[in-house]
Amino acid sequence: MVVCSIAACGCSGAKPPGGSAVPRTSVAVGAGRPPLAVVEREGDARGALAIAVTTEGIAPERGAAVAVALASLVEERLASRGVADASAVAGWDGWRLRALVSSPAAAAKLVELAREAMLEPVGPKDPALAAVAKKLEALAHRPLPDRALTSVARCTGEAYGSGDEATPGAPEIEAWRRSAHGLHRIAFATAGDSALADAVAAALPRSRAWPSGAPVVAIPWPASDGPPLVYDASGEIAPGAARIVVTVRTTAPERAVAAAPALGDPRGPLASRLAGLDAPGRVRSVVATAHTDGGCVAATVDLSARDIVRDVAGRIATAAALARQEVAVEIADVAAPADLRHALAMRAPDPREAAETAAWWEVSSARPGKDELRSALAVGVAATRDPSEPVGGAQAQARPAAPAVSGMADAIRAEIERATAAWQKTVLEARTRVERGQGETWVLLASPCGTLPEASHDAGSGAAVATAAVLRAADETGDAHIEPFVATDGVGILSHGPARAGESPQAHARRLADLAGRAFAADALDAGRMARARATLLARASQLDARALAALGSALAPGHPSWVDPWGTSSGLGSASDEILAMRAAAIRAGPLRVAVLANVDEAQADAAVRAVDRWVARRPGEARSCPALPTSGTVRPGTYAVELPAKAQSEALLAIPLAPGDDVAKTAANWVAAALDGPGGLLARALGGPARGDPTGAAPTRAWSAVLGGPRAPALVVRLVAPDAMLDGSVAQTRAALERLHQGALGEEDRARAEAVLAAASVEASLDPRTRTIDLWRGDAASGADRGPPATRTVGPSTPPLVALRAFASAQLRDDALVVVAARPPRGDTDPPSVGRESKGATRQSERP
């Protein structure tokens, strides 16, 4: 219930130049009268008048009985005076009355009648006492499930019986009336045109001054993050189920109300994070309220019995700790508009609701003192049915549950403490850097395990998970950009984008981080998106160059082709079922995750992004996150392997020199040799500069480039040749001859110098790309350009090797008997001469060299 007061909005009845009135939010009525809030609007068939009264601190031991009694008292008295359409609603700490009015005069008359009904003393023979008793009897049939839930009822404002069923007599009700129906506890409000507001404003001062009500004494808030309440919820929820209620109090009621829409959003962070747990939680309700001492949000989460049959305490605790964290974070981060009170009243479609909202906000206020949050947690557990009893019929009742629940309470509290500690601990490895003035902020979230767990039967499953996550995030991207990050050493999701107009740097970073964290670490990846991701990757794997790379991967890392090509193979993607992909996604999320943030403002922005991503990562107390043990890979098998392409397709060959995994010195040298081989004027261009020997067509020279592929587990220096089929054999022979010359020491200083220039230029070019800088930051690389795929693929080493070191590498590694050759070409006739890779379709066996 909310409205904007003069203090909140700084509004007045002044008119701007030109004579058009500024809509008022309140009207002064003079001293000794309740305040009048105003919602000026046109178009309603009738206007509305509302009254709000707070009973905070009056007989708190009687719960909602005070408000219920006074609401029914005034409603009945008005009815006896001919006001039949006025309705009063009571809550835990106050009551509100609203009514339609046909004219300004009728509104003024209702003000007089309401004053009489509220201020007339209650005597033993008061005719309204019968109606009061009836309402209190109904309240007694709605008791709190547990007396300890009083703080929850105070938060939500719902009317519950206190458990004290004694019917108050006239003297007690009269004491309540005198305390509540006075100044500082009452507010009036109108919703309608200006004439209606003016009529009510004139009617309030016509009568004598109102008496003072009892001082509003705020009841102390519960201790922040105190021990959770565990109570017996049997009869309230299904047998074996659980209910979690998180309450968070804030000194500013606007913050509580502003946070509620996001918390209650079915696609919001709270609902999505709960849905991703082992025992999915369902957000049953989110209630935000304004009070005389601040605001409060209560989020209720239900867990079904079937989801908590195992590890009951642990699963309840995980959901409870997550919900408490998420509600507190949302309230802490929300920025409430300055005119929220008035905006909420204006938004109400019914004038009665608008007036009621405005009146209640008028009696609400912020708690004095510094801004703070206090959270509390209540967990209700319902005992399971006695298995000896039949299900259904009159016998299907829950057995007495109090002993079972009380016996479980200590275990639940202990697990909540462990789960809370787990949620408060960051599980991400974070790497951040600030690049002030850049146009975008970049966030990369990925598993550092990369393609390590993948084998031939599921090669590309990690790429499918990342691609499906991007498809899942597509519904939320807006003006941000999101893309899969797929490499042999990392699988994840990259988001980036500029700030929106008026968006703070931290909000900008959180938005991008939420996009990546939610899609990759939390949201369920449904079968439809998994199928689309797999279809996309299968189309990629069927491309001609991907076929050759898949064959090379099978040769360099037998049994693990995605250690070379992380995007997967046709065989692996085609055989990976939905269940396999779901298991892969779960394993990625349960393993180590690393985030890199390239902020464009300050460290606070980067920290906000890390915190935002971290909240999406589900965790369990005591869990250990690590990559699986390195699987055994078969021995690299040098030789020639054939891949059959469609007729008339361009032929290509891949020549690879395997490197020892983990040998950084050799990998650095290999990159320098690849740079010496590559590009115009490089060793390959010189070796292949004219038509290949034996080529009768005299066709243009073969296109060629070189790089280091295979990531950390199956690295290799690879040369790729693309040529007309008639030229391919000669080009392979010329390339092998060039490698043999390097093996024999032909690498010169001019080649080393050229490689240095090529690598320096590539490094500068790569460093200009924020995407590359983000990936390098994620990897921890000091230089740019690591592992991006041919032909630009290079891993720039941290130092410049001397010529003697490069010659030593070439002498040790560039041996012809270590070479793996993959020849991909269209079918050839039986009369064609023997050539490289003339095995049968799909063959991967070692063959004679040409």
Walk me through what this model shows.
This protein is α+β, with helices and mostly antiparallel strands and 850 residues long. It folds into 4 domains: 6-206, Cytochrome Bc1 Complex, Chain A, domain 1 (2-Layer Sandwich); 229-336 and 364-385 and 403-424; 429-615, Metalloenzyme, LuxS/M16 peptidase-like (Cytochrome Bc1 Complex, Chain A, domain 1, 2-Layer Sandwich), CATH 3.30.830.10; 639-825, Metalloenzyme, LuxS/M16 peptidase-like (Cytochrome Bc1 Complex, Chain A, domain 1). The chain contains 26 helices and 21 strands. The strands form 4 sheets. Strands 1-2-6-3-5-4 form a 6-stranded mixed sheet, with helices on both faces. The chain has a 5-stranded mixed sheet with strand order 7-11-8-10-9, with helices on both faces. Strand 4 (87-90) and strand 5 form a beta hairpin. Helix 3 runs parallel beside helix 7 (194-206), helix 9 (269-275) packs antiparallel against helix 10 (312-333) and helix 10 (312-333) packs across helix 13. The chain starts with 5 loop residues before the first helix and ends in a 25-residue tail after the last strand. Residues 1-20, 387-403, 691-700, 783-798, 830-834 and 837-850 have low confidence and may be disordered.
